[in-house]
């Protein structure tokens, strides 16, 4: 994505990719709200959360979309990084 089309002051035509997302949704165990992070690591998406079950491999982007829908995960913060093609 070329972020310079969205935000002033960024270098034109510089490419950015999504690397992590923070959001909240109902906890599977007790329906309480919980915050979690989805991060792209070693060519796959991984969910991180507090507690004993800290990490879960989600997989590819299609799996992320499915995961967010099934778990009613609401995104709050998106993190991007610049990269060269």
UniProtKB/TrEMBL annotation:
GO molecular function per UniProt? hydrolase activity
What InterPro entries does the record point to?
A: Ubiquitin_hydrolase_53/54
Its keywords, alphabetically, are: Hydrolase, Ubl conjugation pathway
- The molecule here is called Uncharacterized protein
């Amino acid at each position: 994505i070329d972020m310079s089309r969205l935000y002033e002051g960024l270098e034109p035509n510089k490419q950015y990719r999504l690397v992590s997302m923070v959001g909240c949704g109902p906890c599977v165990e007790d329906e309480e709200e919980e915050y979690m992070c989805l991060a792209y690591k070693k060519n796959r998406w991984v969910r991180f959360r507090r507690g004993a079950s800290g990490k879960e491999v989600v997989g590819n982007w299609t799996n992320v979309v499915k995961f967010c829908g099934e778990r009613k995960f609401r995104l709050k913060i998106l993190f991007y990084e610049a990269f060269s093609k």
